[in-house]
Amino acid sequence: MHGKAGPMIYAGIDIAKNDHVVGATDEHGRDASKPMKFANSAGGFDRCVAYLEGLAESKSDLMVGMEATGHYWLPLFCHLQNEGFSVVVINPIRTDAMRRFKGSSRVKTDMIDCVLIAETMRCGDFEPSRLGDESMMELRQLTRLHQELKESVANLKRQVITALDQVFPEYDSIFSDTFGESSKAFLKRCPTPEECLGIRADSLAGTLAKASHGKLGRKKADEIKSIAKGSCGMRMATSALSFQIKLLIDQIDFIERQAEEVEAKIREGIQEIEPLILTIPGIGHILGAQIVSEIGDIRRFHSAPAIVKYAGINPSVSQSGKFSSDDNHITKQGSPYLRRALYLAAMGQLKLKTPFYDYYAKKRADGKSHREALIAVSRKLVHVIYAVLSKQQPYDPNAAKSPELASRSE
């Protein structure tokens, strides 16, 4: 019993882009009201609030749940919380399990799914949800934006290389960094062998000298012209490929400038919110901000293994029930952003040869693959991160060497 005046009611909301559906069940699993569709709008939210207020004697007798479907759930979640409702977010995997248990059709039906969400809550298969304060949400938005910008740049660079492979296959031997300032200055001016040969050597030398701050000049210009003269690049559609490369380089420069602006805001944000994460070796401002913002309020998690599970780096269990943390694949059922950040943080530990490196070496000596050992380091790193954030104490290098910690993070 929940100890309230009236019977407990569980309301489930199936989330979509344009319309949502809300339905409810009581504490005995009986339908509490007919499901209702409402628009993803201010008016629709008001209809939802009116529906929910009619379900129970008081808001303390009502629990509202919704699936974390993309980003569409956030506005409604915030609205209902502001209205004083107790709202939780349900992992879609949980409702899928409930659907199988109930023997429902594999085809998703909004009117059925909202009740399945309610039933999932009634069975207690959920965890409390906290969005965190506004500054934490802003940091999360910034770190995700930064990651998207970096991925965009990487994609643009792949396109440049693809074009160069066609029109100027020898180009990767000219500069040590295809996307360094000198190389980009060259590509903006004459990305094809034909264009390069059409420019005077002293003019090209001037372009290189300016971009390299005097490190490159006539000698490099002559070298490039010699390579261009013997290029085996194709001679068809070179005008279009040249135009494409120039545009792509401009886009790379623009997005990289944007990424730098975002980085400045992230550095400022992590220093204000949780600078202690930066005391852990291998975790800089950007990575630290991503880890902290994706974890959110550390009070959401009762232990480090809970964060491991949230990140989806906990080992899966085979259908037979046999379990081995080293032999099984990770679940990948948690936050992909946090999982990626922890993986990168683990790689940083290896580069710096921190105490985690010995743990990695031990796993490799035990026959584990590089990836398996790195995931094991990620799990161990979570225990250190949890200790730093929950205790509000700087990183203790001795903790990373602790046998007790090693056994807990297996």
UniProtKB/TrEMBL annotation:
The keyword Coiled coil applies. Residues 139-166, 245-272 form a coiled coil. Signal peptide: none annotated. One of its GO terms (molecular function) is transposase activity. Keywords: Coiled coil. The keyword Cell membrane does not apply. One of its GO terms (biological process) is DNA transposition. This is IS110 family transposase. PANTHER family: TRANSPOSASE (PTHR33055:SF13), TRANSPOSASE FOR INSERTION SEQUENCE ELEMENT IS1111A (PTHR33055). Residues 11-169 form the Transposase IS110-like N-terminal domain. Residues 276-360 form the Transposase IS116/IS110/IS902 C-terminal domain.
